[in-house]
Amino acid sequence: MPRHEINSTLKGETLVRKGLMHRMGEHATLRLVPELNVVKIGGHGIIDYGSEVVLPLMDEIGELSREHKMLVVTGGGVRVRHILDIGIDLGMPTGVLAELAGKISEQNAVITTLLLSKWGGSRVKTSDLLELPTLLHLGLLPVIHGTPPYGLYEHPPGTGLIPPHRTDTGALLMAEVLGARSCILVKNVDGLYTEDPRVNPKAELIADITVEELIKLDMEDMVLERKMLYLLRDTVNVKEIRIVNGHQRGNIVKALNGEKVGTIIRA
């Protein structure tokens, strides 16, 4: 019996044919907010330090938002580690762990929005991400939590149970779909090191590296989520990630201006 088809360039396609994938890749995509800078604030590296670190950073980001279009993305931090520890101990599957972890970064998004209210801080939920162009035109400073909304459908991690897509990867995915000009991860170290500098003071800062070079190093630990590297290989709009130290004033504006600071990981 013949299949009922609708005329289109994809008529009769399986949507998995390799030749089709290459042909579709030739199409340019719309960059929704090409002047946007996605700035991800680490929960573990920034928010968990409290007012001494957070309040000056809020002032810096707020003032920068007057000249730069920004989307502030929040991480989870120590409370994510706590809920994952409990969940794993109780045998929760990865999808449930992802749901639980997402609640924490949402809490930090609420806190950050309130702290940025002076500069028009406005809470954005993941389902309302496409409202961002309107919010920016209104002069508001959007804040969103970074956990991707995979939830119960989180990908299996390959090893262990910890969800592979967390707030770093969420920031990159949002930057990509919005066609942002930059994706900046604000941490508590000066960038990516050969080893954890808090454990080994002799660890060397890696100022500039490609994603393929970093994957080949197969490092035991990194300051960013490993899943970001594999996503960055496939991104169309975002071609680099920058890591800067949010405990030092002025680093974010240097990153926004393309100055030498922190670590750049290139696609």
UniProtKB/TrEMBL annotation:
Pfam families: AA_kinase. It comes from Geoanaerobacter pelophilus. GO terms for molecular function: ATP binding; molybdenum ion binding; UMP kinase activity. Its EC number is 2.7.4.22. One of its GO terms (biological process) is UDP biosynthetic process. GO terms for cellular component: cytoplasm. It is an enzyme of class 2 (transferase). This is UMP kinase. PANTHER family: URIDYLATE KINASE (PTHR42833), URIDYLATE KINASE PUMPKIN, CHLOROPLASTIC (PTHR42833:SF4). Keywords: ATP-binding, Kinase, Nucleotide-binding, Pyrimidine biosynthesis, Transferase. Pathway: Pyrimidine metabolism; CTP biosynthesis via de novo pathway; UDP from UMP (UMPK route): step 1/1. Residues 36-245 form the Aspartate/glutamate/uridylate kinase domain. Belongs to the UMP kinase family. It comes from the Bacteria.
